[in-house]
Amino acid sequence: MKPHVDEDLCIGCALCEDLCPDVFQMGDDGLSHVITQSPGPDLYDCIRDAESSCPTEAITVTSGEAE
Ligand code: F3S
């Protein structure tokens, strides 16, 4: 699973960092950044939570193997 933040869509609400701080971190630019490129299965649930909770749907998740 590979999470991605679309910087054009992110409005910096920081919800993803609240839900999943091991994967998403707010940067100095006020936007969220993925800090863990290949998160382990223990993080999948919180990544999904962040994906579905982001108000602008800036977070997308692709399956690593398929790419
Ligand atoms: Fe941005 Fe969505 Fe996170 S707006 S800060 S990617 S919850």
Can you tell me about this structure?
- The longest helix is centred in the last third of the chain and has 10 residues, at 44-53.
- The protein has helices at 15-19, 44-53, and strands spanning 2-5, 24-26, 32-34, 59-62.
- The chain has a single domain (2-62), classed as Alpha-Beta Plaits.
- 22% of the residues lie in helices and 21% in strands.
- It contains 2 helices and 4 strands; from the N terminus they run E-H-E-E-H-E.
- It has 67 residues and is an alpha+beta fold.
- The strands form 2 sheets. Strands 1-4 form a two-stranded antiparallel sheet. Strands 2-3 form a two-stranded antiparallel ribbon.
- The model has no long low-confidence stretch (mean pLDDT 94).
- FE3-S4 cluster (F3S) binds next to helix 1.
- The site of FE3-S4 cluster has 14 residues, from helix 1.
